[in-house]
């Protein structure tokens, strides 16, 4: 073993001649140690390897960059596609209004939405137009999702509206079932329509747009006339609420409910169970707040059942 190392040491220490012979002129002769040659070779190997690694990384980086560019192009395509879809949705809104006018549906607008609805809608619209003021490419994932959601919502609203128009068209000749004429709940009436009296017997300024039924939690709520569900879900202060259009200028509202069984666009028949009594929204106890609207005015629901 020692012998081998000795001879290797001798070999490395040995000098070899390197001859450089140009075609013209005299040749040059260098004396180089084998050790130097080995070192040069190792150095060359290291440089080559480093170069190779560097190349691989640069290659990777460029591939990623190309991928990103491709993604951006794809996103742009999707965004354009969505934008086109949204424009068509806007067009259907015009068609909607025209159909309503042709059918003589009151004012081209079936009902006046209660106050909370308008506020919720305005908030939604503001959020939407804020998202829309940005270039679609610049939307982050969350905003993009919101954007898609708003398109979906708007499509659902439109569909519900068309179903409502179709329903109105099919039913307007036999308007009898469209007029609210039963109790929405069998529970006792705990608060009437109009101005309430304060504890001193004075009329308060706040008008009560409906009547209240106070019953046991989860007791059934039924729809009081045939119609189409315009809205089913959360509304500020009304809680989980259902708004039903009945045609002929009538609509009814059921607030503070739980366990809603219908969704916007559903056709409902008088007496159908649509939810149960709860205490959602601004409510102090389990009760149903029930409103009847006629031609955009809240009327006394007490006049619409025996
Ligand atoms: Zn009430």
From TrEMBL:
Transmembrane segments: 34-56
InterPro entries named among the record's database cross-references: Cell_wall_metabolism_enzyme (IPR050570), Dup_hybrid_motif (IPR011055), M23ase_b-sheet_dom (IPR016047)
Keywords annotated in UniProt: Membrane, Transmembrane, Transmembrane helix
SUPFAM superfamilies registered for this protein in UniProt: Duplicated hybrid motif
Ranges where the M23ase beta-sheet core domain occurs: 207-301
Classification via CDD domains: M23_peptidase
GO MF term list: metalloendopeptidase activity
PANTHER family listed in its UniProt record: MUREIN HYDROLASE ACTIVATOR ENVC, PEPTIDASE-RELATED
Name under which the protein is recorded: M23ase beta-sheet core domain-containing protein
